[in-house]
Amino acid sequence: MQADEVLQLLNNYGKYPRIIYFLLCFVILRGVFSVFSIMYIAPTTSHTCKSDRWNSSSVSVATSDCSAFVFNGTDNVTYECLDWSYDKSPEESIIAQWDLVCDQEYIIHLSTAIYMVGNLFGCLILMPFADKFGRKQ
């Protein structure tokens, strides 16, 4: 059903059903914002490994997102990062506050999946109650 068809159907009804329809649209919009809120509270943040542990003039350090490569002339050693520096423009996100990068990045996706599973079970469990108590006999 297209939006034009819905509006055409609404023209056949009175003022009260139209008001109910538009109020329900606002309820649905609220749900949309909660579903997609993770995109706004946890946007992709650029980060690099802090190399403060290796502040020596005798070693050369190259950093990537999750590792630091230390070159001391004879050995090339790769270390896992323990601290990160973040691009904080325009402001700091929960990714930077809770260090949800590299091996902790799965937590962002896990929280979204748990939220969606909760929505599914909430709908399945509460649907019989809505039918029983919400419908007129």
From TrEMBL:
Alphabetized UniProt keyword annotations: Membrane, Transmembrane, Transmembrane helix
Protein name according to UniProt: Uncharacterized protein
InterPro entries with a match to the protein in the record: MFS_trans_sf (IPR036259)
Keyword Membrane appears in the UniProt entry: yes
Species of provenance: Octopus vulgaris
Superkingdom of origin: Eukaryota
Claim: Transmembrane helix is one of the keywords in the record: yes
Gene3D superfamilies, per database record: MFS general substrate transporter like domains
Bilayer-crossing regions: 20-42, 106-130
